[in-house]
Amino acid sequence: MVAELSPIDRAKYVASRRSVDFVEDGMKLGLGTGSTAAWMVRCLAERVREEGLKVTCVSTSTRTAALGRELGLKVVTMDEVTWLDLTIDGADEIDPALNLIKGGGAALLQEKIVATASDRMIVIADAAKEVATLGAFPLPVEVVPFGWKTTQALIEETLFSLDVSERSSTLRLQDGAPLRTDEGHFILDLHLQRIGNPRQLALVLNQIPGVVENGLFVDICDVAIIGHADGRVVVRDISSGQADESRVDLTQSGNIFADLE
Ligand code: 5RP
User: Fold this and answer.
1) Which of 96, 123, 163, 187 is deepest in the core (most CB within 10 A)?
2) Whose CA is nearest to atom 4 of ligand 1?
3) Could you give the residue numbers annotated as active site?
4) pLDDT tens digits for 222-260?
5) What mean pLDDT is predicted for residues 82-92?
6) Is the CB of 32 under 6 A from ligand 1?
7) CB of 90 sitting under 6 A from ligand 1
8) Distance from C-alpha of 101 to C-alpha of 114, rounded to nearest angstrom
9) Minimal CA–CA distance to 221: which of 208, 235, 206, 210?
10) Looking at residue 24, which CATH number applies to its domain?
11) The pTM is what?
């Protein structure tokens, strides 16, 4: 069945499959959001079912919580655990220092809280998410609905003093209306093309009234697991500087497709 997946889904699947090797019995885990994270949740649920692993999970979105529970995972609230051992999540872009753009799935606020509250964060992705410099993917910024146009104007004005290549922004829509995040906020997507200084931009954006959080994850991610359609997986650890390559057997998919049938 894995062999029948599109090349991009095979790459997401193998990264996910490798990532759950880092999960140990008794861990408190953060579960990310998005299509890659959904593969990871399936792979994790399979380990829990087959090995009797006991893990407690906190989800970064209502979508992931629903999938996790459907697959039999124990999903609790962040306040029930406070701190986590490990978070595994996807990303929209990953730079060589493992700085990330996240929020393509509008879950960046909960994702950042959960990742920051974890001893370790692993990002999982297909190779297309690796970039030399962040910014081609529009940077999501979560804003309060009250006065959002003022917040947008302040953001665009602020961008003139920062090292980015373009400075426009758009309100994210869903079915013709402003998209609402799980927390009831709006998302502004910043079209910057190139972010010269992600750390500075992340700090400055969060000073603007109305901004709740931005999708730049700087110094949060510890390990990147990059999947390829042919089954190759590269694990890059930022603290050791090591990159290890292994291979996931594409003929062994176990029961992870049960919920898809
Ligand atoms: C959701 C996210 C996702 O992790 C990111 O958008 C990647 O999604 P996908 O795995 O579907 O490509 O940040 O807010």
Assistant:
1) 123
2) 90
3) 111
4) 999 999 999 999 999 999 999 999 999 888 766 666 666
5) 98
6) yes
7) yes
8) 15
9) 235
10) 3.40.50.1360
11) 0.96
